[in-house]
Design a protein that fits this description.
Layout lengths: L1 H12 L6 H13 L5 H9 L6 H12 L6 H11 L11 H16 L6 H13 L3 H13 L6 H14 L2 H13 L2 H4 L1 H13 L3 H10 L5 H13 L3
């Protein structure tokens, strides 16, 4: 590590620490090599003004294989919130798909994912408009034996709304009805109102809304939005 720190010092002296490509390569060497240090790689990362995808993926990969794999989730969340790393422009859509596809593979390497960690992944996909990936991850979560919570189901319903996946949305509706969550959770009800409307089932949307025992401003906004969406 002494030699590595000396190289890092030379980077700073020569201004290479301002070059994203160069500093990302340094992070990769430090995080993934046997002679490096993952904590030191994280320190270097924290000093980068605009980390690139390569730097994020390096730390996600390294932590997913470390004794503290949960920290991979931390860097994944940071990446989601970094508009510079994963811009939303239409031209970058394929780039984002590839980016999250790689991250999904890294998530597979983290042992015993719980519902909170699945929520991070699902929410990340939905926020970036990657509904097919979100619903695929939701199915994988169920297959792995993890029971979804209310937040997870709400996020999955948002994915159904984005994609127009009516059948999967209906399955989630049946799931929450059997557990009587719809009666207690206003956010699930609101998500169902929105999902049915965007899948072209305004009658079901109204039915869910009228059956909600609790409503808030988001519920009313969803219902008004549903009627507007259907041109009413």
């Amino acid at each position: 590590m002494r030699q590595f720190k000396a190289i890092h010092a030379l980077f700073i002296v020569n201004g290479l620490h301002l070059n994203n490509y160069a500093i990302s390569k340094l992070i990769s060497f430090c995080a993934l090599s046997n002679s490096g240090s993952l904590s030191y790689a994280s320190l270097i990362f924290s000093q980068i003004q605009n980390p690139n995808l390569f730097a994020y993926n390096t730390l996600i990969r390294a932590y997913s294989r470390s004794s503290t794999p949960q920290l991979a989730l931390h860097y994944f969340q940071l990446m989601l919130d970094d508009e510079n790393a994963c811009p939303d422009s239409a031209g970058s859509f394929l780039r984002r798909v590839l980016c999250y596809g790689r991250c999904r593979k890294l998530f597979d390497e983290i042992p015993n994912l719980d519902v909170v960690q699945w929520n991070v992944l699902l929410n990340g996909y939905v926020r970036r408009g990657l509904a097919p990936e979100a619903l695929n991850a939701f199915r994988n979560m169920l297959v792995s034996g993890v029971e979804p919570d209310e937040f997870c189901l709400t996020t999955a319903l948002k994915g159904c709304a984005q994609l127009g996946a009516l059948q999967q949305g209906k399955w989630i509706h049946e799931y929450v009805t059997k557990r009587k969550w719809l009666e207690a959770d206003v956010f699930i009800g609101t998500a169902l109102v929105d999902m049915y409307a965007k899948c072209g089932c305004i009658d079901r949307s109204v039915e869910v809304f009228e059956g909600m025992t609790k409503r808030n401003v988001f519920s009313w906004s969803a219902m008004i939005g549903a009627l507007h969406y259907m041109g009413m």
